[in-house]
Write a structure and sequence with these properties.
By secondary structure, this protein is of the alpha+beta class. It has helices at residues 2-35, 53-107, 112-144, 156-166, 168-174, 192-209, 259-270, 291-299; strands spanning 152-155, 178-181, 187-190, 214-219, 222-228, 273-279, 282-288. Strands 2-4-5-7-6 form a five-stranded mixed β-sheet, with helices on one face. A hairpin with a 2-residue loop joins strand 4 (214-219) and strand 5.
Length: 300
């Protein structure tokens, strides 16, 4: 009986020691988290070899690593955004300065024909400025929209046909053709308004920066948009969806370099995979739709 009491007393003392050690560790962890500067790279450690403590510390440090990585990513994105905006502001000032110069020439020009010519040139520079500002506004509005897209089962082919009809005169002015090979209708879960913007931006980009006919071809669940580019163009296919990126072929033309960035973001929101390929002076963008989702939607 005495031995049993002694054993119980020893176990109680050991339990008290363990509880005190756990309490000490917990208080130390709380103090560390409260006093740790947000930008610090310090990580939590263990002082007592208590069961489970290393696992808890490992989870906390993993969360701290993830938070640090997220913060670095945001800072890098902010830096890239500021650099892009700085470049865009320069591009906006250039046509504005040109427009101002042509207006000044027109005011001092006595020949009416030459005056009209200068004013038309000024108008074209102002149109270029407005286009860049509109692209910036549209992209910033897209990135700040918090409401989810209204996704439903839609006929992608009909939406594309509507956009092509709207762009008929643009193709006619270029003297280009649009070769369409879709085989059959394509249905997918998309937001019809967002998909229209995707097609408008894609085709608008190709009309502006391409150098020949546009071809649209379907391969099962993929729509491939392609057209020729100038031989001396140097387009980095890994960067075409970056904000403010413009390849060499676009340097002499207007644009904020945000159209394809908006395409990428809208496609991701709708679950559409998008990729770009440059091969043999042909620039192609492929959209990969999820057909299975639409099939399940219709069955339900």
């Amino acid at each position: 009986m005495v031995i049993a009491v002694i054993v119980i007393a020893l176990l109680a003392m050991a339990l008290c020691v363990v509880v005190l050690l756990y309490r000490r560790e917990l208080m130390r962890w709380v103090k560390f988290m409260r006093n740790r500067p947000p930008a610090s790279n310090a990580r939590l450690g263990t002082e007592a070899p208590l069961p489970g403590s290393r696992d808890v510390v490992g989870c906390i440090n993993a969360l701290l690593d993830e938070a640090s990585l997220h913060e670095r990513t945001l800072k890098e994105q902010d830096r890239e955004l500021l650099e892009g905006l700085a470049g865009l502001s320069h591009d906006i000032r250039t046509p504005l300065a040109g427009a101002k110069g042509y207006v000044q020439l027109a005011t001092g020009e006595e020949d009416s024909a030459e005056r009209v010519h200068c004013l038309k040139l000024a108008e074209s520079r102002l149109d270029a400025t407005r286009e860049m500002v509109d692209q910036l506004f549209d992209y910033m509005r897209l990135t700040t929209e918090s409401d989810a897209l209204d996704v439903e089962c839609c006929n992608v082919t009909e939406i594309l046909a509507s956009i092509l009809a709207d762009l008929y005169h643009a193709f006619e002015d270029k003297g280009w053709e649009c070769q369409v090979d879709l085989n059959e209708e394509l249905d997918s879960m998309v937001d019809p308004v967002a998909l229209r913007r995707v097609f408008e931006n894609l085709l608008g980009n190709m009309l502006k920066h391409g150098s020949g006919d546009i071809r649209i071809k379907r391969f099962e669940n993929t729509l491939d948009f392609s057209n020729a580019i100038e031989a001396e163009s140097e387009i980095d296919e890994s960067r075409v969806f970056e904000r403010f990126y413009r390849g060499d072929s676009a340097r002499g033309k207007t644009g904020a370099g945000l159209g394809l960035a908006a395409v990428k973001q809208l496609c991701e929101l709708m679950g559409i995979a998008v990729r770009a390929i440059v091969s043999d002076d042909v620039f192609s963008i492929s959209l990969v739709f999820n057909l299975a989702e639409c099939s399940r939607y219709r069955k339900s």
